[in-house]
Amino acid sequence: SRCATTNVVRPLLSRALGRYPGAALVFAVPPKAPAVFSDFLHRAAREAGAVSCAFMTEAEAAAFGYGCVMAPGDPYGFITLDGTGLDVAVLSAEDRPAGPGCDGIRTIAQASASISCRAIDTWIMQDMFRKFRLLESDPRAERLAPQVRCEAARVREQLPVTGNAEVRLSDRLSGRVFSASYTGADLDACLAELGVKPVQIRATGGG
């Protein structure tokens, strides 16, 4: 419940403020968070004794936290793909230093899609077994499954960066070596088969 959550969050904030008196609190808000989420955090911060609090998007928090250097006016894309979905944000740096609340960086557009890392990895695993010409019920496939799962995650992460990925696995019992090649076209096919369509990037207020 909301009350129970407040009872968990407020002591944590009080402890942080006790260690850093007068600190300005800045919360990173998830893309799909309802409006009441910010209201809840603001109330919890006030009850914990915070002098002030500000909010930023998770993409803004990533840019600020990692010290990204952005040229004023140039757009920068941030992509988050996790177990819950795909989120894309376009950020822009203003011609002034970023401070509390990430004042110098703002989100000018964002979009989301209902797809997860797990769904992509599962598709790549199944495709990998097809390229290996192995049924998933094959004992060799069962032995290779842990390695195939790790390789699927590596392929997912590597393709957007390099545009290609090579897989080479060996089954120690049979001595058979299995290999497969992947390109950006395979990732496109994966997304299309999973029903991911081009999404409209919607502008945020003030941009």
Give a concise summary.
With 207 residues, the protein is an alpha+beta fold. Helices cover 43% and strands 24% of the residues. The strands form 3 sheets. The chain has a 4-stranded antiparallel sheet. Strands 1-2 form a two-stranded parallel ribbon.
Describe this structure in words.
The chain has helices at 2-19, 35-47, 58-65, 117-132, 139-162, 184-193, and strands spanning 25-29, 53-57, 75-81, 86-93, 105-113, 164-170, 177-183, 202-203. With 207 residues, the protein is of the alpha+beta class. The strands form three sheets. The protein has a four-stranded antiparallel β-sheet with strand order 3-4-5-8. A two-stranded parallel ribbon has the order 1-2. Strands 6-7 form a two-stranded antiparallel ribbon. Helix 1 (2-19) crosses helix 2 (35-47) and helix 4 (117-132) crosses helix 5 (139-162). The longest helix has 24 residues, at 139-162. It is elongated. The two termini are 35 Å apart.
Give the secondary structure arrangement, pairings included:
Blueprint: H1 2-19, E1 25-29, H2 35-47, E2 53-57, H3 58-65, E3 75-81, E4 86-93, E5 105-113, H4 117-132, H5 139-162, E6 164-170, E7 177-183, H6 184-193, E8 202-203
Parallel strand pairs: 1-2
Antiparallel strand pairs: 3-4, 4-5, 5-8, 6-7
Helix pairs in contact: 1-2, 4-5
